[in-house]
Write a structure and sequence with these properties.
The structure is a homodimer.
Chain A (H helix, E strand, L loop, with lengths): L19 H12 L5 E7 L11 E2 L3 H9 L5 H10 L6 H8 L6 E4 L5 E2 L6 E6 H5 L2 H24 L4 E4 L8 H13 L4 E2 L2 H7 L9 H6 L3 H11 L5 E3 L5 H17 L6 E4 L4 H14 L6 E5 L4 H9 L6 E4 L1 H4 L4 E2 L4 E2 L7 E9 L2 E4 L16 E8 L2 E9 L8 E3 L2 E5 L2 E2 L6 H13 L16 E3 L1 H16 L1
Parallel strand pairs in A: 6-7, 6-11, 8-9, 9-10, 10-11, 17-21
Antiparallel strand pairs in A: 1-5, 1-14, 2-4, 3-5, 3-19, 12-13, 14-15, 16-17, 16-18, 19-20
Chain lengths: 474, 474
């Protein structure tokens, strides 16, 4: 396995990245010699409103890194002993300090399009061990899957134009900026403004110029000239500090000066105003002065809805810088001005236990019937027609696959050993873009996409009904 | 200064936590020997819809830690040189490698209630230096201020009942879980489910029991019994795995067993269903069996709107576990089911430059007049009446303060030295709760609070108008 490319936050202390009930539950299991082998799965019940009909799986690499290295440090142990009062026993803490995960993990590779209720990750192991990872898996995979999903929509809306991730300033903390940049890149963005995303993950980093640079000089023209002198081969001018049209004319003046020195004016950037109208006027100004090759980049509270609208109006835009709404995975529809909470509600649920050799499927019943879980360890098969996705089927682990299908969950850890070779991030990105091409257009529309068919096998349905009946009769 | 309590993500590499334009702008400044001293301020133009009429400042400690230690490592430098092509010169990278911030920072202490357009942080220093911190300041302060603001609303809605932060599983990455827990604690939550928040920040960590623990046993009663045996002094039972009312009765059975051993049943937790109705029934069941001291805790997609509704219905709830909507700072109104993007749109803007000894206020004009900045280095004074906040005034730095007022921005770094003593987090929390008490009730209502008066001084208004005129005539 390749060296992990994204060292973790608060390194060496991450074994404590868990909700306390994972330790109290574990300790009570330990006290009562619970030796069950269990299976829990991570899945998403519902795609948030306004976020379309498919998701893009992301976050697996960070999760496997965590699980395969999990171990309580001496210092953490001491601290837990002290601060938990009598809650956590010496014996249980010993167990955690000598921890080594020996179970199995199957998961959907990063970059794979997935749908509601499909297991994205399935983990089997001793009960105490498996529960330790709940918070971490949910944290890392909910967020990255959310942003990859959003980014995929933005990239679709951009119809082949460049999408750049500009979100660090509005990301929820530093890790969100990096992981968000990662998820966005997986789903097809071309680069990030964040230099550290470049360093940690090899994502191309890019930048134009700050408003401040213009504001500080006596004139916009002087600012443009100084900037162009420093980056003659790579000049992208920000033209909206005072007046975008005047800015475009000033950019042409500088473009001519560059031309005399043998360089091209690479681009201009618009960051405010009516982007559809302004981009057309700016294009005309540039073209009239012979700057047909100069690109127009725009930014300003963009998302897939706005980008779709701009391109539907034939705005001559070459690249989109997308910030807040991408990095937060906002499920906000900027046309209807309605949204909800910027989060993916993925859950981690017990589906099966093996007690004394006997396999017992498990259910969590909810008055909200949508929330009642589907019991049993499961596989997902994706069927194909003319090389396009033609519906998925969720089945019990050992059921026969449907015709012309492939399984989505692949082996990641077996008997505690990582058996999966994590692809390079750029390969994950390529894979994702290829898979998205196989998803028929009607499921990818920005507004009102159709719902993709995910069948739950008859056996699974029967099993669920049986367990519901049993619980009622108890 | 106390030892920093929250080591940073991706430690030693954080000097690259910046948008690339901060380096290109800096390099062009460097090339052209820009020796201007400038002032930039961080402020929030507008509180997101549904998030009330005040904010709670948070994030300063992480920002000061970053700035006071800022320096490019040799490795980062080498990497930048290689990957930026010819963009960044040896001389400029030398400058960054030997960097030491020598400027000044004034800021509003963490935990202070603040209002739109008020500078929260004001930084003065060489132009190149000050721009390096833009992304970091925005990232850390936007997020923590957002969550502290949300948490303050949740705590107000809870009317003195306990609020626990349960958000890690839906936080945007690992850092968001920790920083969100921090911000939430500052604004009055009592503890966090996240153990690492306890370790890093001294926040009390708490937990009940997982559904899984119940699902795994043959019966709920058996699960409760095993859990109680492990934590007789600290038993909080999760009673909704199958049927909440049956769960409450089972909890009473265990409560009696505990009683025989000399322990009390500490609490029960409801995590689904109609919490107003169920909490009343559960309270009756507990009371009838003599468990009047047993607390009822609830969770399940809570926010300030739901908590307010529950308590308005006299639901006998003692504590609220609040997750997704707290840790994402969701500006979602669960009554009207409308929301936007879970982010705070704070900005970092140039307001003044000092060139060859001359002070020149600066403006950024926008067609969207709301976005036009107020030029000049500024202070904020808070006025008081009967010891309650009675309106703020934003003034030029050297204007006279209004009567009966105190300045909000205090010195943090002077001549490059940290002069501010960061209080302990529990003291920040206490300060915040005291300050919120001084904010009259009408500004704190969950729904439709009044707008607090923030005056912009006449001098500032005149200055702004003058610069707008000048720009138009240019």
């Amino acid at each position: 396995m390749e060296k992990r490319r994204s060292k973790l936050v608060y390194e060496n202390e991450l074994a404590l990245f868990l909700d306390y009930y994972e330790l109290t539950g574990g300790k009570a299991d330990f006290d009562h010699k619970n030796t069950d082998m269990i299976t829990e799965t991570f899945f998403v019940r519902k795609i948030p409103k306004n976020l379309g009909s498919y998701m893009v799986a992301a976050g697996l690499e960070q999760v496997i890194d965590f699980i395969s290295n999990y171990k309580l440090s001496k210092e953490d142990r001491k601290w837990l002993k002290k601060t938990s009062g009598n809650d956590l026993s010496k014996e249980f803490l010993d167990y955690l300090e000598n921890f080594k995960f020996k179970g199995e993990i199957y998961a959907v590779p990063e970059g794979t399009p997935i749908f509601p209720n499909e297991p994205i990750l399935s983990i089997t192991g001793p009960s105490i061990d498996v529960q330790l990872f709940e918070t971490y898996i949910l944290n890392v995979m909910n967020f990255q899957t959310l942003v990859a999903t959003k980014a995929s929509r933005v990239v679709n809306a951009a119809r082949g134009k460049t999408v750049l991730e500009f979100g660090a300033r509005r990301a929820h903390g530093r890790d969100a900026a990096i992981l968000g940049s990662r998820a966005s890149y997986i789903a097809g963005s071309t680069g990030s403004a964040l230099v550290l995303a470049g360093k940690k993950l090899g994502i191309p980093y890019i930048g134009t110029m700050p408003h401040k640079f213009v504001q500080e000089r006596d004139s916009e023209l002087k600012a443009f000239r100084e900037y162009a002198e420093s980056f003659p081969h790579n000049t992208i001018l920000l033209i909206d500090t005072y007046d975008t049209i005047r800015g475009a004319k000033n950019a042409c003046t500088i473009g001519k000066e560059l031309r005399e020195k043998g360089f091209d004016l690479k681009g201009v950037r618009l960051d405010s105003g009516d982007l559809a109208e302004l981009s057309k006027i700016v294009r005309e100004i540039l073209d009239a002065e012979g700057f047909k090759q100069t690109k127009i980049m725009v930014s300003s509270d963009l998302d897939e809805y706005k980008i779709d609208e701009l391109l539907s109006k034939n705005a001559p835009i070459d690249g989109f810088g997308v910030g807040t709404r991408l990095i937060t995975g906002a499920n906000y529809n900027s046309s209807t001005k309605q949204g909800e909470v910027s989060a993916l509600g993925g859950v981690y649920k017990l589906v099966e236990i093996v007690k004394n050799g006997e396999t017992i499927p498990k259910i969590k019943i909810s008055e909200d019937t949508e929330k009642t879980t589907v019991p049993g360890k499961k596989q997902v098969y994706r069927t194909f027609k003319d090389n396009l996705f033609a519906g998925d089927e969720i089945v019990l682990w050992d059921e026969n696959p449907p015709k012309n299908s492939r399984p989505l969950l692949v082996g990641i850890i077996k008997k505690g050993r990582v058996v999966y070779e994590f692809p390079k991030l750029s390969d994950v990105r390529r894979y994702c873009l290829e898979e998205i091409l196989k998803l028929p257009e009607k499921y990818k529309r920005v507004a009102d996409p159709e719902t993709y068919t995910v069948k739950i096998s008859d056996k699974l349905r029967e099993l669920q009904q049986e367990l519901i009946r049993k619980s009622k009769n108890q």
